[in-house]
Amino acid sequence: MKNQLICFICFFLVFSCKGEEIKQVSQNNVITKDKNILGGDTIQGINTLKEFYLTFYGDDNAYKNKKSKEQYISDRVLKRIDSLSGPEEVTLDYDPFIQAQDYFGNIIRKTIEVKPLKNKNEYKVSFLLFGEKNEKRTEIDLLLKKDSKGNFLIDAILNDEYLNFKKNLNTSEKKSSIPISGNYSPNYELSFDNIKYNEDSLITNLTINIKNKKNNQLQTISYSPEYCSSIPSKAVALKANSKGIIDSDNTLEDNIPIIFADFNFDGKEDFAIINDQANNVGTQYSYFLQDERGNFSINEFLTEKIGLFPTEINNNNKTITLINPIGCCNISTRIFQKEKTNWKLIQSKTEKMN
Question: What is the mean pLDDT of the chain?
């Protein structure tokens, strides 16, 4: 009997040890399998998202320089956020990467989790915002894409209706009228509506509403800028000095979207509106001139041949002067003079920069 008991104990110990060995092997297999499933790109994606969230949301004083965010966020996402959250457009009144306005950075740092979703390059980031009892985890579904250097960028927020890029904003219109701020004209009021965007959040078309303050007559103009990422929201008026000259180089701020002035020396208000914000030489404008009936229409010569806003407008000589850099080292000066219905180039020179 004693021998049988000893044999049973030995058998039990051996079996238990073997069981632990099998269990450990099984666990190791699961871990190995999970690592194989993740793969290099998935691990890179997870690390990129963790780095992004810890850098910008990992504490209450997180660094939020937009230039730094460009390392993690694609151009189309940044442009759409800008177009939806500017001073004239408050559709996006929250931070889309946390779906909230406020948070505790130390709580996000402690609770953040990043998991791959079913589809390639899609991830779920989840965290607590405040660490309160029974607080539901915030979940952000993100799509990543690789840039030309092989780095992952956030290219969409899949569970955000404005940033999932599933809705074709080329056909979506903002129909509410957006007034233009500034004391720019005693006779006219401008506003915009029917604003259309493409998938890169650039404005493809908008309606310019021009209201005559004296008779309430309304003119509407369909306008398609070349490259414009934000709705023009400010206008200024430029007046000639006692010598009949407008010196815009010293009186005009950079990149004012709408400028009222008399561009063709007929004594009537005209206006220029941003056409191309991405030109290497400088901001390009479209020019709308007023006719005898008070209606505005685009002037092809000023828009296509001038483009840049004039450095000087001389009412006495009826000339427009353009001074702009060419390449790295040269300055171009051109002077155009108005002759009845045409413009004539009366001076053109290129000089080296000092």
Answer: 82
* Cα–Cα dist 279/30, whole Å: 56
Give the whole-angstrom CA distance, residue 47 versus residue 306. Answer: 49
- 90 assigned to some structural domain: yes
Print the domain residue range for 117.
36-167
Extract the residue ranges of the chain whose pLDDT is less than 70: 1-39, 61-67, 85-91, 167-176
* Domain edge (last residue) among 143, 167, 191: 167
Taking phi first (over 0 means left), then psi (-120 to 50 degrees means alpha), and beta for anything else, what does residue 297 get?
beta
Q: How many domains are there within the chain?
A: 2
What is the sign, positive or negative, of the torsion defined by CA atoms of 153, 159, 162, 168? positive
* C-alpha to C-alpha distance for 328 and 330, rounded to whole angstroms: 6
How far, in Å, CA of 38 to CA of 42, rounded?
Answer: 5
Burial of 288 (0-12, 13-18, 19+ CB in 10 A): buried
